[in-house]
Amino acid sequence: MTVQRDLFASNRAWAKNISTQDPEFFEKLSRQQRPEYLWIGCADSRVPANEIVGLLPGELFVHRNVANVVVHTDLNCLSVIQYAVEVLGINEIIVTGHYGCGGVIAALEQRPLGLIDNWLRHIQDVHRRHAPMFLPLPDGADRANLLCELNVIEQVDNVCQTTMVRDAWAQGRPLTVRGWIYGLADGLLHDLEMEVGLGDDPAEVYRHAVEAAALRYSR
Ligand code: CO
Questions:
Q1: Is 46 a catalytic residue?
Q2: 26 and 56: one domain?
Q3: Residue 65 sits in the same domain as residue 110
Q4: Are 46 and 102 within one domain?
Q5: DSSP characters for 156-184?
Q6: What CATH number is given to the structural domain containing 175?
Q7: 1: CA distance to ligand 1 center in Å?
Q8: How many angstroms separate the CA atoms of 42 and 98, rounded?
Q9: For the chain, how many structural domains are there in total?
Q10: From the candidates 44, 63, 143, 178, which is the catalytic residue?
Q11: What is the mean pLDDT of each run of 10 residues along the chain (219 residues)?
Q12: Which of 63, 84, 147, 188 would you call most buried, defined as having the most Cβ atoms within 10 angstroms of its Cβ?
């Protein structure tokens, strides 16, 4: 039981550390959560949502899956968005991808990994949609990085198309959906110019963001 012993010891040290700084922290948190942000990110162990943006428990509502994909019919992800928007009243949704994403690279290389290949088909759809952008690029990092960026842009658009987000905008709520990408090598977030707010045309923002991505890789 060394795994349990180690992780429980680590957990006690963590809880003690937080309680030392704020003795009522957990007591207050147990009564209610009031996060301002919904984070949709990759399940990758190197991209821990709260740590990256320096937020404490209670400050970030999180959904993570392989390669931060938002599928129109994924009841899991849709339920998270619905609860965040309609119950918690969150007006900030952030889709965060990351460079060097194993799911994106596997999709790009069409490397068979089993059941997950079905999930990664969604990323291959993104690749196919923008295939001409990839033609001038050499094999390797640039292609993978471009697809990581386009995947975020696509998933932001998918969030914008959900009934929950459309309804929120129809009610005049100042809800914003944005796309960021995280660099594993330097720990920094980058904005992908895919930010859709109340009154914006998602299709127009999408076109602009894709053009900006194309420019980054045309040098
Ligand atoms: Co990933």
A1: yes
A2: no
A3: yes
A4: yes
A5: HHHHHTSHHHHHHHHTT---EEEEEEE-T
A6: 3.40.1050.10
A7: 30
A8: 8
A9: 2
A10: 44
A11: 91 96 94 94 97 95 98 98 98 98 96 96 98 92 96 98 98 98 98 98 98 92
A12: 147
